[in-house]
Amino acid sequence: MFHTKGRAVSRIAAVMAASGLVVGGSVATAAADNGGSTGGVTATVQPTLLSGKIDIEGIGERDGGLFTMVTSDQATIRTYCIDFGHGIDIKSEAKYRESPWAASPLGAKGREGDAAKILWILENSYPKQSDLKALAAKAGIADAAKFTAEDAAAGTQAAIWNFSDHLKATPKDDEAAALRNYLVGPANVGIKNEPTASLSLTPDSLPGLSGTKVGPFTLNSSADKVNFALSDDTSGGKVKLVGKDGKAVGAALNGPIAKDTQLFFDVPAGTAAGSVSMTASVNTAVPTGRVFLSEGYTEKDHQQTMILAGSDRTTVPVKVKASWQPKGALPSATAEVSCVDNAVKVTVGNTGDQEGTIEIKPGKSVVVQPGKTETVLVPVGEDKAYDITVTGPNKFVKEFKGVLDCKVATPTPSVKPSPSPTGPQLATTGGGAGTGIMAGIAGALVIGGGAAVYALRRRGRHSRA
Predict the structure, then answer these.
(1) Are 303 and 87 in contact (CB under 8 A)?
(2) Residues forming beta bridges with residue 456, ordered by sequence position
(3) What is the pLDDT along the chain (465 residues), one digit of tens a residue?
(4) Closest Cα to residue 325, out of 374, 280, 269, 279?
(5) How far apart are CA 209 and CA 89, in angstroms?
(6) Phi-psi region of 177 (alpha: psi -120 to 50; beta: other; left: phi over 0)
(7) C-alpha 93: how far from chain center
(8) Rounded CA gap, 324 and 394, in Å?
(9) How are strands ordered across the β-sheet holding 213-220?
(10) CA 252 to CA 223: how far, in whole Å?
């Protein structure tokens, strides 16, 4: 764990590279995935952290601050940790996906107030509020010249941990501590409404009968325009994308997009069995406050849960598929993590004209009547991986995998990091995994010699060993 000011991150990296020192870290389990829902931006965590030292009452010092992630189209998003009890290896290039609060610890019973307080912090602190002088004035910081971006990041992270993990977290730096006190104080009245997804279109596939409208596919988006493109259409162009009113949608919908907009594929009667795919896409900034969950599907490769603090505009595509046939039982299945129930909620449907028996493993069998749905809760242990398989008539098979993380976890003890062949790990927060980072940095300074020590000493008054 180290406190960075100005260009301290790049200087430390240079020292490590020059000395040949390689630092790794342990990866703890992390948050549940998006439960099979379709949509949301995906991003890869980067090996940088704008941070400061934070004292956690009863635990000790940790390094906390603002993470950077990069999307597939190279847009930048910034996140804070809302999952102190789990670790992250930020040099692992871990994949994350935008997800709803319900699939995260913020969706557990009684957490509505915590989520509202965190969202207020994100909207009223750095980097959403990028004018440091103005932010210092609101926080009552006497000398704004001493208030840096690192202070702002550390103060914001400490304030978030106060609500996300119920920790008394206080930055070591005076200015950062002042910001933290302001953010958790009376000014924080909370913001109750969960931000809308950048783009969500669910489920990812649905079957139907020829001569009907296959759907609904439910669309939500914060963007001002959603574009649509059909592909792989076996009907030869007969199938049309329509709204709930049956009117053709065309190539785009202009915003604002109504909540839970329903879309269907109109399949003319007599159309031979087949399918069509559709890609929906938006170009937008992801709304502040959206949760980001690790996409790893095992307890080993899942990592701590994040929450969005700021985003460049990025392109978000989602692909869904509709299929049809003349008759028969036509099963479908969706799943979502429900932290209220500490379970995965599996919903199975039948859009055919005959009843069908659908197996949910582990779980139970259900007989679904034509046009009906049934919901089954599959209990999952906290921090445990799940692998749910749904099977039904017409060779239907669908699998949902992830790791459930619905509760504030007890922080793990510090773990000595192991060497990594891929280069230095620049930061680790939460999970008690940062002690080895400090040891590695100390070793690098000794090996690097006096010049490196001199460079680090020039970080200024806030650099404290």
Answers:
(1) yes
(2) none
(3) 222 333 333 322 322 222 222 222 222 222 233 333 478 999 999 999 999 999 999 999 999 999 999 999 999 999 999 999 888 888 888 999 999 999 999 999 899 999 999 999 999 999 999 999 999 999 999 999 999 999 999 999 999 999 999 999 999 999 999 999 999 999 999 999 999 999 999 999 999 999 999 999 999 999 999 999 999 999 999 999 999 999 999 999 998 999 999 999 999 999 999 999 999 999 999 999 999 999 888 888 889 999 999 999 999 999 999 999 999 999 999 999 999 999 999 999 999 999 999 999 997 999 999 999 999 999 999 999 999 999 999 999 999 999 999 987 766 433 333 333 333 333 446 554 333 333 333 333 333 333 333 333 333 333 322
(4) 269
(5) 48
(6) alpha
(7) 14
(8) 12
(9) 200-202, 213-220, 261-266, 240-243
(10) 12
442, two tokens: 């100390």
Distance CA 103, CA 136 (A): 34
- Count of residues for the chain? 465
- Measure the CA–CA gap between 302 and 337, rounded to whole angstroms: 15
Each residue of 56-66: b (16+ CB within 10 Å) or e?
Answer: beebeebbbbb
Are the C-beta atoms of residues 464 and 53 closer than 8 Å to each other? yes
Question: DSSP character for 104?
Answer: S
The DSSP bridge pattern shows strands 205-209 and 313-325 to be parallel
Using an 8 Å Cβ cutoff, are 92 and 27 in contact? yes
* Structure-token match 């957490």, residue found: 111
For 423, left (φ over 0), alpha (ψ -120 to 50), or beta? left
Which is it for strands 213-220 and 313-325: parallel, antiparallel or unpaired?
Answer: unpaired
The pair phi, psi for residue 97, each rounded to 5°, is: -130, 135
Dihedral, 305, 377, 201, 273 alpha carbons, nearest 10 = 140
CA dihedral 236, 237, 242, 247 (to 10 degrees): -130
Q: Please state the three-class secondary structure of 296-324 as a single string.
A: CCCCCCCCCCEEEEEECEEEEEEEEEEEE
| Integer Cα distance of 111 and 134 in angstroms | 31
In 1-75, which ranges are continuous DSSP H helix? 8-19
Q: Give the Cα separation of 234 and 122 in Å (integer).
A: 47
Paired tokens of 101: 């609060």
Classify residue 297 as left (phi > 0), alpha (psi -120 to 50) or beta. alpha
Closest C-alpha to 440, from 425, 458, 456, 462: 425
CA 388 distance to own-chain centroid: 21
Q: Which of 62, 94, 75, 28 minimizes the C-alpha distance to 160? A: 62
Only one residue has tokens 């399918």, namely 275
